[in-house]
Design brief:
Shape of chain A: elongated
Distance between the termini of chain A: 26 Å
Strand content of chain A: 25-35%
Distance between the termini of chain B: 44 Å
Number of helices of chain A: 2
CATH class of the largest domain in chain A: Alpha Beta
Largest interface: A-B, 19 and 30 residues
Shape of chain B: globular
Number of domains of chain B: 3
Number of domains of chain A: 2
Oligomer: heterodimer
Helix content of chain A: 10-25%
Number of strands of chain B: 33
Radius of gyration of chain B: 29 Å
Structural class of chain A: alpha+beta
Order of helices and strands of chain A: EHEEHEEEEE
CATH superfamily of the largest domain in chain A: ACT domain
Structural class of chain B: alpha+beta
Largest sheet of chain B: 9 strands, antiparallel
CATH topology of the largest domain in chain A: Alpha-Beta Plaits
Number of strands of chain A: 8
Strand order of the largest sheet of chain A: 2-3-1-4
Chain lengths: 143, 506
């Protein structure tokens, strides 16, 4: 969504049972959109979207409660390597990869949930899809 | 097979006539897709009158591909025994310095990420590659070690020589297992959450000439961006089941990596994407009709690659129209489906071949021998029996969910087993308990089975090869697998002890 940034939240086994995200939403009165969540009793990894303007204070609040916050790795497609076979298309759970009318494979970065999914990466015969680390210095006071 | 004869037909056209038109620059050429539209709008008769040639194309992973290269002699000369190029093991099937680069041979250092397919692509691209060779040394070839760097220009011959290409059609693959599997049909998600297919359908060369009237030994074709030839039927060719294949050859020095690409199928291996296109001369009205074939008339089977057997279950029949739509339906379930071959490039190949012919750069040839119509793709003769789970499984000791841990402990002792399978009233599996679970329950004071049983059980079936079952146990670090049928009823149990006894004996 426009004006929103994605952050990756990691909850350790110790804190995974606490309702931290809800608390922060209530305390800061900031909308937080959960994109994907993989949580069990051993810990959790949540990809969330927060308003860009409120990112600093949201990150601080999560870190204060013991949550590890980072920028998610992004999926990037090397158009020179892509052979437009389409192997990745049906594997994408959010329809971020589609075939255009001329049968080219089209990647929509906005829709992609990033490396928390990565279903397409090891399915690419041309190895044109990579999971790429973002520069974490964009996040304030590193953890 | 012998002589090649066409039934004489009214209004027939000859290849010589078509070539004369190509020379004059007035041959009418359509791609297969354009031909289908013309036949639909104007009918077969008009299409036959107007069209001289229909071009086809396909661009897919074709593992039975490779390149033959000749290096010339070193001084002192060597009779190569073992060779690596860019660390990829190279086959040395002939005399001193003839080598065959197989597309699926994998690098000794980069494994799955670089193989024969990538090496061929690099050579075609003009890149320098490193050859390392060793030999035992002979009186005539005294050298035992060799290391040199080469490009394609240094090679005497560099020919793509593919022994099975251009499958007429191919399976659509799904996976019924509970885990993702990685196959030569790509990544298959558990419980049939995706499907993959290969082949260009209505654009496929052999599908547009299904009786092989014009495609045969000697047919000039588009191969990897250059002109090549069909040199016969491919291995496993079977016309009657619409599984025709081709053996082809072409000068790789003239090829183009847009139409020849190395590739990796994760946990399967490396391969080569080959671009292949064939012109079909419209010699008679019948051929005009045949080249009008549509995706909805081309069917293939949805095959369960989750079953690790030669004869995998066929779950449904689907058309290439459904496959290309992005979703198929198998027993009322909608499954997203992806192509493994590039339809975009297939289309481009048909278009490129069309322009070659229109520009007088490509002439048609008549085959000197037809492809066989009666050959059969036989399974392998096996002289040694392969053990399956059903051959070694034992009676399982079972219990019900409501039993107490104590009762289970007693059963473990009296039956002297380590695994007890939990079943429901119909004998269907609901979990498993091991002697270790019971010991721990005793130590922790847990009394009911529900507290200690494992619900997500890794299972096997009687017709699973023992080797696969054994791999499963190692992978999940467990020592036994309940054997169940399709209704999840428990038929027995197979333990790692049973497996090692049998496999160890061989």
């Amino acid at each position: 969504m426009k004006g929103m940034v994605r952050i990756l939240l990691r909850f350790s086994e110790k804190i995974v049972e606490q309702p931290i995200t809800s608390q922060i939403i209530l305390e800061l009165k900031v909308p937080i959109n959960i994109i994907t969540a993989h949580v069990n009793s051993k810990g959790g990894e949540v990809l969330a979207e927060v308003p860009e303007a409120a990112m600093d204070k949201v990150v601080k609040a999560f870190r204060k409660k013991g949550v590890t916050v980072s920028l998610p790795k992004l999926i990037e497609v090397d158009a020179d390597k892509c052979i437009s076979c389409g192997s990745c298309v049906a594997l994408c759970p959010v329809e971020a990869i589609t075939l255009s009318d001329d049968l080219s494979v089209v990647f929509n970065k906005e829709k992609c949930v990033g490396s928390t999914c990565s279903a397409c990466v090891d399915a690419c015969p041309a190895r044109a899809i990579k999971s790429v680390k973002q520069n974490n210095s964009e996040l304030t006071n590193s953890h | 097979m012998g002589e090649f004869k066409l039934k004489p037909q009214k209004n027939a056209r000859t290849i010589e006539e078509i070539n004369a038109k190509i020379r004059n620059g007035d041959a009418q050429v359509l791609t297969a897709e354009e031909m289908k539209k013309l036949v639909e709008s104007s009918g077969v008769e008009v299409a036959f009158k107007e069209v001289d040639v229909v071009t086809t194309g396909t661009f897919g992973a074709m593992c039975s591909s490779g390149a033959i290269i000749n290096l010339g002699h070193s001084d002192p000369p060597i009779k190569i025994e073992k060779a690596l190029i860019n660390d990829v093991p190279i086959c040395h099937p002939g005399a001193a310095v003839d080598l065959y680069i197989g597309a699926t041979a994998m690098s000794e250092t980069q494994s799955f990420e670089y193989g024969g397919g990538h090496l061929i692509e690099d050579l075609v691209n003009g890149e320098e590659v490193e050859l390392k060779a060793t030999s035992y040394g002979t009186d005539c070839y005294p050298r035992t070690q060799l290391k040199t760097n080469l490009t394609k220009d240094d090679l005497n011959q560099f020919y793509l020589l593919n022994f099975r290409n251009c499958y007429q059609r191919y399976n659509c693959a799904v996976n019924s297992r509970d885990e993702t599997i990685y196959t030569y049909m790509g990544k298959l998600l558990p419980r049939m959450r995706n499907a993959t297919f290969s082949g260009a359908g209505e654009l496929n060369p052999l599908m547009n000439d299904p009786d092989y009237e014009t495609i045969g030994m000697g047919t000039r074709i588009f191969l990897g961006g250059a002109q090549g030839y069909v040199i016969g039927e491919g291995t496993q060719h079977e016309a009657q089941s619409l599984n025709g294949t081709l053996m082809v050859r072409g000068n790789a020095k003239k090829m183009n990596t847009e139409f020849l690409r190395g590739a990796t199928f994760t946990r399967y291996g490396t391969t080569l994407y080959v671009g292949l296109g064939i012109p079909i001369p419209i010699l008679n009205e019948d051929l005009a009709k045949k080249t009008a074939i549509r995706d909805e008339a081309i069917f293939t089977n949805v095959v369960d690659y989750g079953v690790p057997r030669r004869d995998r279950p066929k779950l449904a029949k689907v058309s290439y129209k459904e496959l290309k739509s992005g979703a198929i339906t198998v027993s009322d379930k909608k499954i997203k489906v992806s192509s493994l071959s590039s339809l975009k490039t297939a289309r481009k190949i048909a278009g490129t071949l069309k322009s070659w012919i229109e520009n007088g750069e490509f002439y048609l040839t008549a085959p000197v021998e037809r492809l066989p119509l009666d050959s059969v793709f036989k399974p392998m003769k096996q002289t040694e029996a392969t053990p399956f789970v059903g051959n070694v499984m034992q009676t399982a000791v079972t219990c019900k969910e409501n039993e107490e841990v104590r009762a289970i402990a007693e059963r473990i002792v009296t039956k002297s087993v380590n695994h007890i399978i939990v079943v429901d009233d119909l004998g269907r599996i609901s979990g498993i308990v091991t002697s270790w679970d019971v010991t721990r329950a005793m130590a922790e004071g847990k009394k009911t089975l529900i507290d200690i049983m494992t619900r997500r059980v890794v299972t096997t079936k009687p017709d699973e090869p023992l080797e696969t079952a054994s791999k499963k146990m190692a992978q999940h670090n467990i020592s036994a697998l309940p054997v169940i049928n399709d209704e999840k009823k428990v038929l027995g149990i197979v333990t790692s002890e049973d497996v090692s006894k049998l496999l160890g004996r061989r």
